[in-house]
Amino acid sequence: MSRIGRQPITIPTGVEVTAEGSHVTVTGPRGTLERGLHPDMRIVIDDGVLRVERPSDERQHRALHGLTRTLVANMVEGVTNGYERRLEIVGVGYRAALKGSDLELALGFSHPVTFPAPEGVEFEVPAPNRISVRGIDKEQVGQVAADIRKIRKPEPYKGKGVRYEGEHVRKKAGKAAKGGK
Known about the structure:
Outer Surface Protein A, domain 3; 4-stranded antiparallel beta sheet; 3-stranded antiparallel beta sheet
């Protein structure tokens, strides 16, 4: 039995979960999330507790059991508390600013890069070198943060670029550090 898949999900007050076949809808104080799940997985809701059941012990069903439970748990967590990813910008002259709901980044290119806010995601810039990405869908928040980081990844010689908060960037020794002959 999957250790993650068999754990029940407690549904907080103010959150409504409806499962119609393989389609799950979760509504809470922050919004509504919908997702289609694998048709073999069953969602059972009783007395404010949600459980995911699998039809057999086949390899694929065992793999899908924990995945399905985690996806539904992330949906419940998202509509109650939401998700946030923080990014740091390192480099002289590198900075971020909000232009309406869009993010404008100066990352050493000849032009500022404008990153439009997708539906369901909002940006916050508490400092010129810090970005906060917020939303209710964990997958979408993580993907938007990864796309922002992809614009200028941290380079290994000076460490300049956009990185996740607390991310460690291994630095390489440059040509001068190799030693003379």
